[in-house]
Amino acid sequence: MLEGYAGRLFWKLLLALWASMLLSIVVAVAYLRSVELAAAPASMALTPPPSVPLLPLLPLAPVITGMVAMFAAGVGVAWYLAVPLRQLRRGLAQVAEGRFDVRVRPALGRRRDELAELADDFDRMAAQLQQLARSRQELLHDISHEMRSPLARMQAAIGLLRQDATQAAAMIDRIERESERMDALVEELLTLHRLEAAPESWAEGTVDVLDLLHAVAEDAGFEARAAGRELRIDAPGEFVARVRGELLHRAFENVVRNAVKYTAAGTAVEIQARVDGGELVVTVADRGPGVPEHARTLMFQPFTRLEGASSVRGIGLGLAIAQRALQLNGGSIEAGARPGGGLVMTLRLRAT
Fold this sequence. Notes:
Number of helices: 7
Number of domains: 3
Structural class: alpha+beta
CATH architecture of the largest domain: 2-Layer Sandwich
Strand content: 5-15%
Helix content: 55-70%
Distance between the termini: 36 Å
CATH topology of the largest domain: Heat Shock Protein 90
CATH superfamily of the largest domain: Histidine kinase-like ATPase, C-terminal domain
CATH class of the largest domain: Alpha Beta
Shape: elongated
Largest sheet: 5 strands, mixed
């Protein structure tokens, strides 16, 4: 039972304390034995009795030996604890300065206790911060690129409009499309920020989740037909739950539209929904290029661009928003390969 609450460091410190107590007892016993021999009659002693009586010093023996033993044990324990704590403090100072490449665990050698585990946790934290910092730098580059392109096209359209007023209708349409694209990008950024900074700001309500799914499928199906693709949905019945409906709608929309966007021309995106033991399971399958197996978990991280994964191009916000939206509703999402080629997204949601 005690092992569930105490780890290796606890037992090491307890052993050091026990060893110091044992040492003081051994020394005290040896001292008492020497006193007995010194106080014995001269005829029984091997050596003449000492000229200074030792009996007055008898009460001080355990105190002196205990102090010496505890001091020695304290020095050892203090050194044992101070070294890793000093390394951790140095690492924290470097992280505070923005140096996320610092690692503490290698400096602790073969140590195996809670402080070593703490160093492992610190290194994982530093690695995640390093990845986040790198991702945010890439985000700034991606956002500048994503915004520069529509801005350049808008400026070109305005220039052509000034040169030839007869093209006003076409140029205005172009400017409108580019402004909508920029607005969508800003909206995604704000949504992700709100999900991470103020998740409680999304209102809850009781809704039929399958109605949300059908509404998303209807809109996406219109876009699919316009692009020479098809969308099929098989989601009978109802699934009423108390959820953050707006978030769930965005999660479905991001996943379904991503599938419609990257499925091959002339193919269909298939949506299926079923209730399994009080859990709603929704699959969205496309016939796109797919995603490599090693990248199927990374694709849900915000600001992540995956090499060789053409089905998740862009700045990597849509699926990150979908995952966080489902998590806030007590659900989950995962990606897998579709037999015959393509990607299958599986969304799960429990009734509440």
